[in-house]
Amino acid sequence: MSPTEFVGAVQSALEPHRDAEKAAPMVRYMRDHFPFLGLKRPEFQPLVRPLLAGAKPVADEAWLAETARLLWALPEREYQYAALDLLAKYQKKLTPASLPLLRELIVTHSWWDSVDGVVGAVLSPLTLRLPELQLSMDNWSRDENFWLRRAAILHQLKHHKATDTERLFAYCRHNAPDPEFFIRKAIGWALRTYAYTDPLAVQAFVEANKAQLSTLTVREALKHLTPIS
Q1: Rounded-to-integer distance, Cα 108 and Cα 223, Å
Q2: Buried b / exposed e across 26-58, counting CB within 10 Å, b at 16+?
Q3: Residue 3 and residue 14: Cα distance in Å, rounded?
Q4: Whose CA is closest to 135, among 176, 99, 106?
């Protein structure tokens, strides 16, 4: 099955369920940035899951990249979600050669759902498995594109005890002055998540840097910790 054939099969599975009435509030929720077919996750996943499983014999790294790009290029948001599910299912087949693909997906049709989807489903487990990619994350953390910086800040979400604390805190400090909501939220989210692993380290970091951190960031970081007076 070629990438084009797979994408055609996804379209054939999803298009008959297009529902303009259900799509309308989904479009509004995403601030009119993207069209939707109108399929919520519980409806979408059973339609795509068999196709993902059927791709196993052909899903090498090159096939995954071409297929993900074709899905990402389609207008409706559900096709980008299908690309994310595909990459998540076969992320163990990805190597450092896939990092340009992930960068491309992050900066194309960018919004929190797609960026965080790339990070959570693919980038975080990939950088945990391939620590040499951390140097690329250093570059992303200082990129002009704030979505790439958000991805870098969040890329250790699933690293838990393997988190490089010094790197996490460095990204947070560097990006703290940025007024962008999605950056401030990301810093708080990354700190809050790491607080489950090392609450004292997060509390100390916030205490030492609270003059530079936004109110939003501090609130998110300390959500499950004792507030700092």
Answers
A1: 32
A2: bbeebeeebbbbbbeeeebeebbeebbeebeee
A3: 17
A4: 99
* Buried/exposed 134-149: b ≥16 CB within 10 Å, e otherwise: eebbeebbeeeebbbb
In Å, what is the CA distance from 100 to each residue of 2, 93, 146, 188, 190? 21, 15, 17, 27, 23
Report yes or no: 84 and 122 within 8 Å, Cβ to Cβ.
Answer: yes
| pLDDT score of 9 more than 60 | yes
Residue 194 has φ and ψ, to the nearest 5°, of -70, -25
pTM of the model: 0.94
pLDDT 10s digits, 172-217: 999 999 999 999 999 999 999 999 999 999 999 999 999 999 999 9
CB atoms within 10 A of CB 100: 11
Angle (CA) 216-154-170 rounded to 5° is 80
CB atoms within 10 A of CB 18: 14
* 78 vs 37: CA distance, rounded Å: 7
3-class DSSP assignment, residue 228: coil
CATH class of 134-229: mainly alpha
Q: Domain segments of the chain: what residues?
A: 134-229
Name residues whose C-beta falls within 8 Å of residue 189's C-beta, 6 or more positions apart in sequence: 154, 157, 220
